[in-house]
Amino acid sequence: MTSASPLLSVRGLRTSFAGPQGQVTVLDGVDLDVARGESLGIVGESGSGKSLMLLSVLGLVKPPGRVEARAIIFDGKELEPGSSPGRLRAEGMALIMQDALTALNPSLTIGTQIGEALARHAGLRRGREQRERAEELMRLVGIPEPARRLAAYPHELSGGQRQRAMIAAALACAPKLLVADEPTTALDVTVQAQVLDLIAEMRERLGMGLVLITHNLGVVAEYCERVAVVYAGEIVESGPAVEVIASPRHPYTAGLLAALPRLDRLDDPIAPIPGMVPSPGERPTGCRFADRCALRSTPCDLPQALRPAGPSRLARCHLVS
Amino acid sequence: MTVQRLVEKLGHLLVVLFGTSVLTFAMTLATPGDPVTVMLGDQRASPEQIASLRHDMGLDLPIISRFGAFLWHAVHGDFGRSFFHRRPVLDVILERLPATIELTVAATLIALAIGIPLGLFAGIRRDGVVDRLASLGSLVGVSVPGFWLALLLMLAFSVSLHLLPVSGRTGYGGEPPAVTHLLLVDSLIAGRPDAFVEALRHLALPALTLALPMAAVLMRVTRGAVIEVMKADYVTFAEAKGLSRPRILGLHVLKNALAPAINVAAIEIGVLLGGNMIVETIFGWPGLGRLVVEAIFSRNYPLVQAAVLLYAVTFVILNFIADALQGALNPRLRA
Amino acid sequence: MSAVTADAGLASPSRLAWRSFRRDSTALIFCVIIVIACAIAILAPFIMPHDPADADLLRRLQPPGWMEGGEWAYPLGCDQLGRDILSRLIAGARISLGVGFAVVAASTAIGLGLGVLAGTARGALDAVISRFADILLGFPYLVFAIGLMGMMGPGLDNIVLTLVLKEWVVPFRIARGETLGVSRLDYVEAARAVGASRLAIMRGEILPNILSPVLVVATIRVAHVIIMEASLSFLGLGVQPPAASWGSMVADGREFLADGWWVSTAPGLAILIVVLAINLAGQGLREAFDPRLA
After folding, report:
1. Is it the case that chain B and chain C have 3 or more CB pairs lying under 8 Å apart?
2. Which of B216, B248, C285, C288 is deepest in the core (most CB within 10 A)?
3. What is the value of pTM for the model shown?
4. Residue B230 sits at the chain A interface (C-beta within 8 Å)
5. What is the pLDDT of residues A90-101, one digit of tens each?
């Protein structure tokens, strides 16, 4: 993209789990780039490995999981792939999770959970300073009566407010990169838009990079500059979001788009992709999507590499060239 | 906790206390034959004397009245007289109570100090060396009969190694002046380290016997709770925030893992209340438990009844406190 | 299981759990130990090497066979009256294990029946029984047992009565809970709609599904009851001489810890082994039925 060095650069990410029948590799040599201030959407079905990708980078994968990588470079510093979130990695990356009710500790107040992030990242350990900054953050994310909410427990807030409080806690880490793991799946539709708008606004205000993990292509279309489509532990297509969605170069992406019901064509039958995602232990040696692909041919029996499919676009299919 | 909920819980408490006293009273009706004759034992008494004794004890009244009288007197602290001791039952009980309290408190503290940290460690480093050893040990701990454990410990430390005394509560050094009637505390107040050590030496084996099975249970519960908690999303989120490991474990994990442990601890203290009858008998500890066993064999029914009521009421109140504490630890329950 | 699922060839959760339990080899080992213990108890009169009541003061406090002064004819040594400990141990198994199983069998039957009754009848009947159960549950176990035995007087039948009185509450709660849960399920509603009598519903739909959790808990309770009986007998409130259970045998050896530690150790160890085996088998059972608890 630009000549400025990327905020996050991952090369050869491999995440595997020790199972009853040996080591199972879920992510197999994934490369990822996020530029400064850029928003990247990562799209895939459940179990595709999309969340695992970022959890691995954040160092949140614990044994029996194992993370390896040729390189993970964040903000110019090289990070150790490993299972413990080193102090270095925590500096500059923050995570927002799917369900704020489970992501927030039920027995600690909102104030405590935002405050400890402030203590850790902004050095604000004393009561009043910390409290004022926490209230500031609460106001930033649009929570009314911040002082009262800080003293409350997670279950005492509404779903939308809880999500905002979680975002406030993440922002307290002063991140340069915000990872949002399905941030709206647990919310109802009206609140979803509000939260996503909030994340977009925060991103602009604070100049953060954003990685938005979702299964919802519509969200990606509206909030992301770039998109990476994940299938069976691999990135199968990447590029500017608008272009990828307008003209997908990988059959899977095309299939995903075709499967979406359209308001302007309500009479059209829903067209799901036939077949099922192969589980990590049962992946074919060739193209992992071949079994479900309508355009399958002999070259598909060979493992497919990512090929250029246009300006800053990649696709993992021989049909591209 | 809201006032309304508190009142509700207190109401429930009163109902249970009432039911407990009914049950305790009902137990005395299970004596085979006539209690007075049995109590007199070999002593000869004329039918008139027996009848008069029965009248004194209110045994010629209908059962409901007897229960009413029992309840009325119990609330006023009158549990009748112990013929054996020639004193009111309450006095005899109160005299022996501090020894049992000292033993129970010591055992509880030891069990908490061993069980909860071990459970935490085992849960955090699951399947590690400590976990495997502790799990095995705790399984034996809940399976071993308390009276046998007492004898084993006695055999090891008193008989073989001569490290600790076999029985009793005090040695020959003489007791410190009684302030709280708790020897450990009184000897510290009086500045008598020798009495303190002696009291400790005598307390060690009985307290350990009671503590070990309870520690085993606490360890298992804490371990299970920790394992569950560590799978939670909020632990992942806390890690993602970059919090230090000690803070995550010490605050986030601990606060949620302790709740079930407290619940179990209260139940286990109930087990201690029964267990100390056996332990006090074995170690010759001059407490309430041993008094009850002696009273049973001397057919001292009023005393047995009073002691049983005291134990039962204590247990009910303990559970009530543990229940209330749950609200303090888990804010979701307060609503 | 209910007719519908059997016809459809689907395995009910209970059946799957039993299958998984059978495959757990460590749990099976403990089951074998339990079976051996039961066999010993049942075959007692035939396998005892000596008459347990045969006292010979010449053999007073004779050490076990592997120690100096012992003989292999009396492998576990002799007690203070010169009686063979192994034979007494085998004879005592009858009482210790017998009481355990008898109490759990009786209390489970009572608790199950009352639980299903309370769960289906509901209303006042349910309230009364449940309240009674709550109060019993709130009574510390040993305090209750010792207190009641103290009033009633010692003896084996009194022990069984006392322990059953405390034990029925556990299966009662489970049965009642499951009954309340199950009777709201669709297939019971369907049975009711078709006009099945309450008894038929109880037998056909409710009972098979609550049987499994009740039985799993029952096996674990046997261990607890064995320890309770042993504790009561230890204090002298249980079986009276000349009969002996393992608990009273431990009490017998209390005074001889210094010169004859084996008198108390053998019965105590027997209790530990049986209880441990039951607890481990029970843990395996629980894991098979609800792996989340493991």
Report:
1. yes
2. B216
3. 0.82
4. no
5. 678 899 998 888
Mind listing the pLDDT tens digit for each residue in A167-218? 999 998 888 899 999 887 777 777 888 888 888 888 888 888 999 998 888 8
Question: DSSP string spanning C123-136?
Answer: HHHHHHHHHHHHHH
Chains that touch C (3 or more CB pairs under 8 A): B
Determine contact: B252 vs chain A, CB below 8 A. yes
Q: List all residues 6 or more positions away from A230 whose beta carbon is below 8 Å from its beta carbon.
A: A42, A43, A44, A48, A49, A50, A53, A236
Q: Nearest CB to C257: which of B151, B275, B295? A: B151
The answer on pLDDT for C292 being more than 50 is no
Interface of A with B in 139-178 (CB under 8 A): 153, 155-156, 166, 169-170, 172-173
b/e sequence A216-242, b meaning 16+ C-beta within 10 Å? bbebbbebbbbbbbbbbbbbbbbbbbe
Lowest mean pLDDT among A142-156, C190-204, C269-283: C190-204
Question: What does the pLDDT look like over A49-74, one tens digit per residue?
Answer: 888 898 888 888 877 888 888 888 88
CATH of domain A8-92+175-315: 3.40.50.300
- Residue B193 φ/ψ, nearest 5 degrees: -60, -30
Residue linked to tokens 């008998």: B281
Q: Are B227 and B126 in contact (CB under 8 A)?
A: yes
Cross-chain residue pair C264–B142, CB shorter than 8 Å: no
Q: Are strands A177-181 and A93-96 parallel, antiparallel or unpaired?
A: parallel
Contacts of C230 in chain B (CB under 8 A): 145, 147
Examine the predicted complex and report whether its ipTM is higher than 0.90.
no
Q: What is the pLDDT of residue A229?
A: 92
Nearest CB to C268; choose among B148, B277, B315:
B148
Does the CA dihedral A289-A295-A297-A299 come out positive or negative?
negative
Of the given ranges (A27-36, B41-50, B91-100), which has the lowest mean pLDDT?
B41-50
Best residue in B241, B244, B245 for a mutation probing chain A (most A CBs within 10 Å): B241
